[in-house]
Give the backbone structure.
Amino acid sequence: MSRIDGQVIISNTRFDNVSMAEAVERILQLVHKADTPQHVCTGNVDHLALLKEDAEFRAIYASAALVLADGMPIVWLSRLRPDTANLVERVAGSDLLLELCRASAWTGLKLFFLGGMPGAADAAKSILEERFPGVQICGTYCPPKEAFETPEEQEKIAKILRAKNPDVLLVGLGAPKQEKWIARHKMQLGVPVSIGIGGSFEMAAGMISRAPRLVQRTGMEWAWRLLQDPKRLYKRYICRDLPLLVGLVSEALKVRMGQQPSRPRPLIEEPHSTADGSKLNITTAPVRPTEPTEARLRK
């Protein structure tokens, strides 16, 4: 399976085989060309565990315009299995946030930050505006946890987003809450692209310490986070995610040693339709990064 084919299957979940630069390019393509609001998923081992138990979450992943490998264990599993392509690299949501800010500074892409801990989105906005001069962060909002599900709060969120009219909505509510919220509301909100990014606002704001690069590259960022918040994360990482990862590694080794048959190659999804009726294949469609966002909105 070649990289151009663009898809790798890990634990019955499709991941798009893209680099960080390619992921940003495809998001720009979706903003400019997709005819309906789209969502992007950033998958890790914890998501794989949740997907096994949650049919709604699986449907959201299946309908995503782009599924990114947010986690080195996902990348390593692709390289361990002989019946998949090798994922080119990890595309972490926390890094994607930074790269979208970088792209915004030279394309005019309008970003909105929703969710996170109280104060995290505002703090991240201030830091990122200093780091990426010209970035277009058109607004932030941290909905109160206790009122989030009420119709009044949902209408307030919709009103804010309609007024700000972002191109990309970045949602930090944690999985699968953020993905389910996006799927349920994206058509009503009309934002071209929505992405769940977990605790990325807190990391960008310095409220949560990001693991050193060496720890990230060795796939041990989960352990770094576990040490920072063991009470909250022990059940997730040790009781839920670790057994799944061990099982996936064991399965991959059995396939590699010929003790278990490999899977058939999955079919590539049909291209998305654009507003003018033409087909947009997000793996190959040309991007127009120099077109101002305002020009897209006038079309």
